[in-house]
Predict the 3D structure of the following.
Amino acid sequence: MGYDLNRFEGIVDEELICSICSFVLEDPVQSPECEHAFCDSCIKQWLQHQCICPIDRIQIQPSDLKPVPRILKNLLSKLKLKCDYADYGCISILRLENLNNHLQECEFNPKKPIVCNLGCNIVIPKDELKNHNCIKELKKIVDDHQSKITSMTAEMNRQKNELELNFKELRSLKNFVSKFIKSNQLASSIVSASPTSPTSNLLGLNLTDDDDDDIARWSATLPIAKVIRWGGIISTPDTVLQTVIKRALIEHGCPTSILNQLMENAHEKNWPLGLSTLENRQINRAQYANFVCKRVPNKQAVLILACDNRHMPSHMIVEPGNLLIFAHGVE
């Protein structure tokens, strides 16, 4: 449907009028052979019933339609007409090419987006302002956000459960390979001769050692740690601090098979998923109380060993354990 003739100043050339709706052409297209021009919506609706030109009855298919020449577009763009919202009070007379931009900014546009000045600052159409209820609209926003949070929480729990299953499978695989190595003298001798071979570090679990038994026995010798300020964790301890902590671990009998891995796990980049970012730490803060923490004697550092924390979700622990170094807050 084209533009109403009564909106235009002066006389509009007949070549600029759609023969279907008898209004000024809007989004004009033309027939490829006879070159008659029509509004895009008008001719497409016409062709749904009969595939012929409305003027000279030549066969036309919708796919045959093409844009009108530039000269015709230029003639249309220079026509002057009233604003769509003249009945609402707008007195602007503007060129057709500027109409769309004007309509978006026109003060008389009943659908113009405006900011509510009653306190909620929500952007709403102008004609809805009189019936606007700030509390009701804000409640809708809160409910929408709550729905998204619920959905994200459900997805996070699903991923946690999936991760838990993966860790269980990983531990089962570790135990299987460890038992296989112990039962095979040849394999055991190869592993012993080459501690850096791929087999000895399968999945990064140091399977040449006596499983969790040595770690558990060592853990039993360490004092229980009480962390009173979890915010005091040092996420990237420097070399000097690492050296001091490593020496303390060695002095107090840390199994050599896990020493280097524990030191690597002192860095935030190697922490378990539940502690890997500040956001994750805040989300999982309530679970800290369930950790079994062992103190590195005489140091502001604690060990959260996997063998002591099998009760924890898999996203909160890492093999063979986590070494957390604190600036303060460990008793």
Q: What stands out?
A: The beta strands are 28-30, 37-39, 66-67, 80-82, 93-95, 113-115, 123-125, 294-295, 301-305, 321-325.
